[in-house]
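Structure (tokenized):
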């Protein structure tokens, strides 16, 4: 049932969000020369996939977890996109393709060995990664791998339709700060 809602919301989001995508793409082009950002992440069953987001950092910024990135690399438009979470909108394409869900553990980078080990031990990779979830609405980011993996496992154990909609609503209402940037 959750996959049905993922497909439905991703399709509607991509279709009705097209004007927003178009405007952000134009702004992104002038801000960084490229509106979209592609990065390999770890998906369900540890299968790599390419995550797509709106670019919020200068091109050439080192590919590290957000909490390890420098705040100086975030562009002015990128600050707004991150604050409003609009940088996540292109991930609706990943959801539609079945690589992600709207709700699930945030997909980590392939070089985050400690987080991968923690998540693997708790069975977190049995689920599709998500755009949002319990860790995001509680402000837990990838800087605390053990806590993040435990929170992801807890979320997945109690994930049902009610929790799915609760996490989406909490995210849309502004709960959760996202990943910290130093």
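Design, position by position:
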């Amino acid at each position: 049932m959750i996959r049905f809602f993922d497909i439905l919301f991703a399709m509607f989001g991509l279709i009705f969000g097209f004007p927003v995508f178009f405007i952000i793409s134009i702004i992104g082009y002038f801000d960084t020369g490229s509106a979209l950002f592609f990065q390999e992440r770890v998906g369900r069953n540890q299968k790599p996939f390419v995550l797509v987001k709106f670019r919020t950092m200068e091109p050439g910024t080192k590919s590290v977890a957000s909490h390890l990135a420098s705040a100086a690399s975030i562009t002015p438009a990128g600050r707004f996109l991150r604050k409003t979470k609009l940088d996540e909108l292109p991930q609706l394409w990943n959801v539609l393709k079945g690589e992600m869900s709207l709700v699930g553990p945030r997909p980590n980078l392939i070089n985050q060995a400690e987080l991968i080990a923690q998540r693997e031990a708790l069975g977190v990779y049995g689920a599709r990664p998500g755009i949002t979830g319990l860790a995001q609405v509680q402000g837990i980011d990838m800087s605390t791998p053990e806590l993040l993996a435990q929170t992801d496992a807890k979320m997945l154990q109690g994930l049902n339709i009610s929790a799915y909609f609760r996490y989406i609503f909490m995210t849309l209402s502004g709960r959760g700060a996202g990943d910290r940037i130093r």
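Reviewer-requested clarification: Strands lie at 36-42, 48-54, 101-103, 130-132. DSSP finds eight helices and four strands in the chain.
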